[in-house]
Amino acid sequence: MPATHEPPAEPLTALVRQEWTAFRSRGRLIALTAATLATILLGLLVGVVNRSTCSEGTVEVPCANDPVGPAGQAVSDQFYFAHQPLGENGSITARMTSMTGTITYPPPAHDEIVPGLVPWAKAGIIVKDGTRQGSSYAALMVTGSHGVRMQYDYVHDTAGRPGGVSASSPRWLRLTRAGDTITGEESTDGAHWTTVGTARLPGLPRTALVGLFATSPGDLTLRPTGLGGSIVESRFTQASAVFDNIALAGDGSGTGSRWSHGSVGEMGHTDWERYHRPPGLVESNGTATVTGSGDIAPLDMVGRHTVEDTLVGLVIGLMMVIVLAVRFGSGGYRPGPTGAGLLGGRVLAAKAVVVGAVTFLAGLVAAGVVLPFGTAVLRANGNAVLAVPALTQVRVVVGVAALLAVAAVLALALGVLFRRTWVAILVAISAVVLPYILGALPILPDGVSEWLLRLTPAAGFAVQQTVREYPQVLSHYAPSAGYFPLPWWAGLAVLCGYAAVALGLGMTRPRRTVAPRSQAEWR
């Protein structure tokens, strides 16, 4: 019997060109364009329909934007500040003998005002680049439940000794400035000092402000909803601290001068502050009592928009991409000499390259348009949007494009693995989109939502996250509040893992002969 020889395999580049020719039918290009436009238009719609105004007396005005810290992120910078000038070399020392507070309407008795401090209530001494919100600072403080801390430039936090403060157990605090370096020390007796931490504040002016401060963030509670989910609620709190043995030293310091004082950020507008205890500074017999509310920290998400709010259309766009990729995988063929074709591993690889590349480019266009323009529309309508650094926005744009591309490759492979197109579409949407929707809505318990977004392909949605979890910020760190359990790169890696497994199974599946289809048939 004469030997038979299979024709040599075509180069992968030639297969890619063939699959690109097969992909670029009018129907597929229209579907891809529709997915891109859906992502953009729905994102812009969010900015159009959301309008917010604030009141100044009887006049409504656009709400002010949140302050931005030295690193370009949105921050909370609200506290009561008693201050004097301090030159390039100097120090402030103070003894704190008391720290008390008030929590308004805590659960379960929501009609009661009780004494107490929230865990991250703060009072102590601070060096700051003026009174502008978002300016650089370094502070040494006593907290409600986390002992002594040194914090600077909003995101940095160093722990000192644990425990609280009282008249029988006072806390001595000291900040020393040497140029742009600030050193924080604490003591229990004013004689033996322990260094808590050191901060470098580039650009700190020759004359900064130094003094006493007090602040207290909102008390967060969770209201049950759905099947075990929850919605966060915040209540006003206030902190007061008593200082004595206050000493300033160094060149350019205000030693011997009276304290200038006022609030950094808006304060004093609640009924509690108006009719009970207003924020401020009270001096008496060598002591200074400072009362304030707010926080000095990265901004939490409660009541604010994020740039990823403009990506609300991503779910619709992704489902359209999934349908397109499944149909491309289940309906593709490679022409053969007999008018039929063999769908093998090399053809599948070529299809994956094509569908991944085109959806990546479509994702770049969609996210690259909707993120900046959608955010601008939100802000133009008076909405507060958490500021993020420019590089983070670029990462989100590229990440969204990668999410669409990898999800398309996964859907393509499922289209090859399953015999029926509608089954592959249902499986792909159930695996990629449905867990994200269930996790993003306050329906399921937080733990269930977190595991859904760890273990399923929906983990890839983490690429859109711009907010971070900070230990020194009391917030509801759950998917329903916008926090993903995995970092963006890990979430994308989970999705890539599923796509790689599905693609590998599709490549090792026995080849099947597929009858050629008309070029006019878009799928």
Please explain how this structure is put together.
With 523 residues, the protein is an alpha+beta fold. The chain has 2 domains: 24-48 and 304-466 and 477-514; 75-298, Jelly Rolls. Helix content is 33%, strand content 28%. It has 10 helices and 23 strands. Strands 5, 6, 11, 12, 13, 17, 19 and 20 form an 8-stranded antiparallel β-sheet that branches. A 7-stranded antiparallel β-sheet has the order 10-9-8-7-14-4-18, with no helix packed on it. Strand 11 (171-178) and strand 12 form a beta hairpin. Helix 4 (314-331) runs antiparallel to helix 7 (421-432), helix 5 (345-380) runs antiparallel to helix 6 (390-417) and helix 8 packs antiparallel against helix 9 (446-455).
Structure summarized in a few sentences:
With 523 residues, the chain is of the alpha+beta class. Helix 4 runs antiparallel to helix 7 and helix 6 packs antiparallel against helix 7.
